[in-house]
Prior knowledge:
Elements: H1 2-7, E1 12-16, E2 35-39, H2 44-59
Amino acid sequence: MLAAVRDARVPAHAVPAPRPVRALIPGECPPAAVWRLWAGSTSYAKAEDVLMRLLRELDT
């Protein structure tokens, strides 16, 4: 994800999420490490487009 936003020239960084983190699927335990991606406010829409494209590729 970071490489994709970097290649799109979006300023971004990732930081560990503070605890507690809820499970994404009810009944599952949250993963051991959860990270949050932060993007520059003026590039937020561009970052969102890049990430949505990546997520669609992962879903296929």
